[in-house]
From TrEMBL:
It is found in: Cell envelope. PANTHER family: D-ALLOSE-BINDING PERIPLASMIC PROTEIN-RELATED, GALACTOFURANOSE-BINDING PROTEIN YTFQ. Belongs to the bacterial solute-binding protein 2 family. Coiled coil: none annotated. This is LacI family transcriptional regulator. It comes from Asanoa siamensis. Its main location: other.
Length: 332
């Protein structure tokens, strides 16, 4: 419908400039931040992954890559090999490439403010997935999609309190911590310690990082066994360290799941097999299948839509019997 209102010469000139400028901005995909949309109009997502340290991480990478393909999002993927400096480098590369959205799983909680401010100044929204950062400035990222690690530690501790409630002697616990400084290691340790405080007989006699790997779990468990004659319980922050510890436990002539009660977190297939076979006693699930939610969030933040500051993944726990039932249909 033709407008009947008349604009003065100044307003018309201003409108022309704004319109031309606007068209130029839309047409030139290299201006401003976050306008790195691919030539074919696809959203370009720059993703920095922690590494490939565990079965959980492998399943998480598969979920992210499959979901990006499914969502029609162009994924730039970098494996940081568990080094923060590699993640910072990858994020800076994504800023240079003017991707539309950046997502990453921070290997450790601290040391991100500078690079996250660079992304913010470049106008590129950032999504945290899997692990969190300890930045005080919550404006540095749009949302954190991941598990509640304190709850995972708490559920593990609560199961042990129940399982050892009739113990008359002290119960000696050794703990295999995840990567030093990482949110899952810090929070799982916190949740577990708070839960077992309910029974003073439950004592953590040794606690050390196995870096979330099978090799690390085996090596540290060997040290624990050599320096502690009486170990009743192993709490491992992930299945992979627990699986590595199994080798050390059996090599020491002890029966895992019986001589030493074993509690882990993740519930990846190999962990669930160990649980079903009676080598583990309890697993708190930590779902790696974050890909579809991540892609949905990437589309929303790219479109400038509001998203929740915190999105907690749904997960459960498994006993030996529940593992036997769940294994046949386990997705990861
Ligand atoms: C948890 C994730 C942890 C897993 C480990 O969300 O960051 O890192 O528990 C993985 O298996 O290595």
């Amino acid at each position: 419908m033709k407008s009947t209102r008349k604009f003065g010469p100044v307003v018309a000139a201003l409108a022309a400039v704004l319109l031309t400028g606007g068209l130029a901005a839309c047409g030139n995909s290299d201006t401003g931040g976050g306008s790195g949309t691919a030539d074919d109009g696809k959203i370009v997502l720059g993703f920095s992954q922690v590494g490939a340290e565990s079965g959980w991480r492998t399943a998480n990478t598969t979920s992210v890559k499959d979901a990006a393909a499914e969502a029609g999002i162009e994924l730039k993927f970098d494996d940081a090999q568990q080094k923060q400096e590699n993640q910072i480098k990858a994020i800076r590369n994504y800023i240079q490439q003017k991707v539309d959205v950046i997502a990453f799983s921070p290997v450790v909680e601290s040391g991100w403010d500078t690079v996250l401010k660079e992304a913010k100044d470049a106008g590129i929204p950032v999504i945290l997935t899997d692990r969190a950062v300890d930045s005080a400035d919550k404006s540095l990222y749009k949302t954190f999609l991941g598990s509640d690690f304190v709850k995972e530690g708490k559920l593990s501790g609560e199961w042990l309190v129940e399982n050892k409630k009739s113990a008359t002697a002290e119960v000696n616990i050794v703990e295999l911590q995840g990567t030093t400084g990482s949110a899952p290691a810090n929070d799982r340790k916190k949740g577990f310690a708070e839960a077992i405080a309910a029974n003073p007989k439950l004592k953590i006699i040794a606690s050390q990082s196995g870096d979330f790997t099978r090799a690390g779990g085996k090596q540290v468990m060997e040290q624990f066994l050599n320096s502690n004659p009486k170990i009743d319980v192993l709490f491992a922050h992930n299945d992979d360290m627990g699986l590595g510890a199994l080798e050390a436990i059996t090599a020491a002539g002890k029966v895992p799941g019986k001589d030493i009660t074993i509690i882990t977190i993740d519930a990846v297939k190999d962990g669930m097999k160990a649980l079903a076979d009676g080598k583990f006693n309890f697993i708190a699930e930590c779902s790696p299948l974050l890909g579809p939610q991540l892609m949905d969030l990437a589309k929303k933040v790219h479109a400038g839509e509001e998203v929740p500051a915190r999105i907690e993944t749904e997960e459960t726990t498994f006993t030996q019997e529940q593992a036997k039932e769940a294994l046949p249909t386990r997705k990861y």
